[in-house]
From TrEMBL:
It comes from Singulisphaera acidiphila (strain ATCC BAA-1392 / DSM 18658 / VKM B-2454 / MOB10). It catalyses: guanosine(46) in tRNA + S-adenosyl-L-methionine = N(7)-methylguanosine(46) in tRNA + S-adenosyl-L-homocysteine. Its EC number is 2.1.1.33. Keywords: Methyltransferase, S-adenosyl-L-methionine, Transferase, tRNA processing. Catalyzes the formation of N(7)-methylguanine at position 46 (m7G46) in tRNA. InterPro entries: SAM-dependent_MTases_sf (IPR029063), tRNA_(Gua-N-7)_MeTrfase_Trmb (IPR003358). This is tRNA (guanine(46)-N(7))-methyltransferase. Signal peptide: none annotated. Coiled coil: none annotated. SUPFAM superfamilies: S-adenosyl-L-methionine-dependent methyltransferases.
C-alpha cells in the first residue's frame, strides 16, 4: 500500500509527482459523461482556465506531468479502457491534482461530440493505435475528419501534439496534418520528460524503436467549413504497417497499468 511521500516507478522511470496524505487527495474521475454535447470546462473544474486535452491517455503519465507543472491550466483526459482510467484517476487523486479530470470514452467520440468549438488551448495524442491488420485500417483514429475536429476544438493559435513509433503512420501524418496545422517535427526527446512522456514511449525506446514527435499550431486562416471541405479531399490512412513495433502493439494489448 503506497504511503504519503512515496515516489512510484514504472519500467525504471519515475511516475510524476508523489503521494500526498489522504486529506489532500483530489477527486478526478468523471464517473458518467452527460449526453453528447459540448462540455462546460468552467463548470467541470469550478474555474475558467486554459484547458488541455489528452486523448488516449492510458495510465495518465503525460497528464500527471503537465498538471503538476502547470497548475494554472485545466487538464481533461480520456481513454476507451476503464482499467487504465482507474490507474490514472487513482494516481491523480493521490497527488492532489484538482486541475485534472479523467473520463472513459474513445478519442474520436470525445473529440467530435464533447469538445466545444475553440474551447481548448492544447490537444495531445501519444501513440494512437495503427491497427496492423488491413481489415482494421478503418479503425485508425487519425483521419482528415478527426484532424478537422481537432482544428475546430482548438482556440486560435492552439497547439496540437502528436507522437508515434510507427514510421508508416508518421509518413501519413506528414502528408495530412500540415493542411490544418503549421506542423513541425520535434526531433529530440521532450525536455520536460527526457525518458518519455508516455508509457508506450518508454517501452518503445527500451526496444530501440525510433520515436516520431510533432507539434502543430492551428492554422487560423482556415474556417470550420473550409476544414471540413479539405478533409473530404484528403486520403484515408490506408498504409500497410509492418515491423518490430507490431510485436510491441500485440504485447501492449494486455496493458493494465
Amino acid at each position: 500500500m503506497p504511503s504519503p511521500g512515496d515516489i512510484e516507478m514504472e519500467f525504471g522511470v519515475t511516475i510524476p509527482g508523489q503521494i500526498l496524505p489522504e486529506s489532500e487527495w483530489a477527486r478526478t474521475a468523471i464517473k458518467r459523461l452527460p449526453p453528447p454535447g459540448p462540455l462546460d470546462w468552467a463548470a467541470i473544474f469550478g474555474r475558467s482556465a486554459p484547458t488541455i486535452l489528452e486523448l488516449g491517455c492510458g495510465n495518465g503519465r503525460f497528464t500527471l506531468l503537465s498538471a503538476l507543472a502547470r497548475p494554472e491550466a485545466n487538464h481533461i483526459a480520456s481513454d476507451i479502457l476503464p482499467v487504465v482510467i482507474r490507474y490514472a484517476t487513482r494516481r491523480a487523486n493521490q497527488r492532489g491534482l484538482h486541475n485534472v479530470r479523467f473520463a472513459v470514452r474513445d478519442a474520436q467520440t470525445f473529440m467530435s461530440s464533447y469538445v466545444g468549438e475553440a474551447s481548448l488551448a492544447e490537444v495531445h495524442l501519444y501513440h494512437p493505435q495503427p491497427y496492423h491488420n488491413p481489415r482494421q485500417a478503418h479503425l485508425r483514429l487519425v483521419t482528415p475528419r478527426f484532424l478537422a475536429d481537432v482544428h475546430r476544438g482548438l482556440q486560435p493559435g492552439g497547439l496540437f501534439v502528436i507522437q508515434t513509433d510507427n514510421p508508416d503512420y508518421w509518413a501519413y501524418f506528414e502528408k495530412v496534418i500540415p493542411v490544418f496545422f503549421d506542423f513541425k517535427e520535434q526531433v529530440d526527446p521532450w525536455p520536460d520528460a527526457p525518458a518519455g512522456r508516455s508509457r508506450r514511449e518508454i517501452l518503445a525506446r527500451g526496444r530501440g524503436l525510433r520515436i516520431f514527435r510533432g507539434t502543430g499550431l492551428r492554422r487560423d486562416d482556415i474556417t470550420r467549413d473550409t476544414a471540413l471541405a479539405l478533409a473530404e479531399t484528403l486520403p484515408a490512412p490506408r498504409f500497410k504497417s509492418r515491423g518490430p513495433w507490431c510485436d510491441l502493439d500485440a504485447w501492449e494489448e494486455g496493458r493494465p497499468s
